[in-house]
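During the reporting period the student researcher (J.K.) took over the structure-prediction task from the postdoctoral fellow and processed the backlog of single-chain submissions. One of the processed entries is reproduced below for the supervisory committee.
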Amino acid sequence: MNRTILRQATGPVSFVLIVFLCWFIAGMIADRMVQQELDAAMRSQQQMSSSIVDNMAEVIASDLAMSRAIPATMAELGVIQHALAQTQDYAVKSTDGEPSHRDELLKVPELIAVSNFLHDAQGFSGLDSIWLVNANGLCVASSNSQNSQTLIGIDMRARSYLANALLGAFAEAYGVGRASGEPGIFISAPVYDDGLLVGAVVAKVGIARLRHWVAHAGTFVADDNGVIIMAHDSSLEGRALPHSRVTRMPVAERLSIYRRDAFPEIEILPATEQVRQRAPWIPEALAAQLFNMPEQHMPALYEYRIGLNSGLSAHLVDPLAAWPELLRNHTRDRLLVFLTLAGTVALAWVIAVSYMRERRHHRATRDLAEQLQSANTLLSAEARHDALTGALSRRYFLDLLRGEIDTARAKREPLCVAIADLDHFKQINDRFGHAAGDRALEHFVDTCRAELRGGDSIGRLGGEEFGILLPATTLAAGLEVVERLRQRLKAAPSAKLPSSAALSVSIGITELSAEDLPERIMSRADLALYQAKSAGRDRSKAVPPDDTAPPARAAASVW
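J.K. obtained the following structure tokens:
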């Protein structure tokens, strides 16, 4: 009787233990299955997020480079330099905020002509406004001179974006216009007349023109103070990144730049604890890669890029799209595995379902990987060559230079680097149009290809400036090569250019020394080009390896 009672008692206990064991094993199997799905989903989405942020950073850098070129070019115009030089006697008369000398400045014929020129330049440049500030910090000409809110006569000395320009340095900063109240990127370039700083050209690009930077959901852009200046979700604009500099700035400085004092901090926090509480089966290494924001209901990937050569940073908070499905899959998988362990039929059924699901998952992952590879291949090809001339891009040319330096040193061979700049290129654009300028650039590259060897390389460094690599070439031989190139360009004009469009080039060349870094040899080649320009243009100059660039010239070129 005791045995019967014991058997009756242990039967239910054994059943409960078996059920518990099956449930425990099913949980372990389900954990492993969904961990693999999570790992694959995160890797795929991380690739996509990185691609989005990289493309966003490239667009920002490209747009700002184009915007910088306009005030920088204007700073080289004689009419701008002369106008600022002639207004050095105008200064702020009082500190009460009233415009100084506005009525006088609006009646000066030369400044009226300059203001009209700035207005026309604004119209085709894509800028919101352009104005000139003399060395005393007084605005003397503006593209909105006919507007009731004209900046002429306004004291600009307190503008943060102008301080560096009046000290002789290029400056760029985000801010909110004091007159218009509209946010934008302010770009200022110093203006020199006969070597004397006479003022600055300032341009503003309105944020409204740059909304395409944040076309993708979850993207936003922050300035160097950590303030979100633009976001796909406009409710994030005006908030500060965690531990950003704006929270430590004086109130007066915040009001001067942003016209506001309060900057609520955006919360982008590691989601490790929350994720592990809701899904303890997720490995800690994967959970540490997830972030969350109070406004979102699922963990997200966070990608950002800083150092865009502008003080701006690109960010993307990308919710993990597979998260709800993964949670559902985990619960479902555990139940399915449990039922599988309960019987052979159920086991076969679960295996079939899991196999088909995994097969679809891997096919989708493989297709996505192939699409990413194709997209990356296309982006790589576009980044390697200049779209207009077919020459190497600046980035690829500099990468090639580093490789050629290593090869030359390994083989103990000489290497020459030259920088060529088309003379008076702006005059061709101004006289015959930008289409003629494009043909001139193409003709120069075609001439280089016809004159140079197959192993030589030419890259477009920017605008009308090109770099040339001559492997296994001494400085004397390299000087002969570039001189032949210069003469051929002048002797064989392009049939696509007007006959009156005289095309010539100035070339500086140098040779690799034992201690040269890429930056140093490029700086020396730039010095040689500067000597060729200073000597009257349309000539070639060589600088031996033991020469160094003067400090002012070296600081002007960053490679």
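The committee noted the following: Confidence is low (pLDDT under 50) at residues 549-559.
J.K. will present the remaining backlog at the next meeting.
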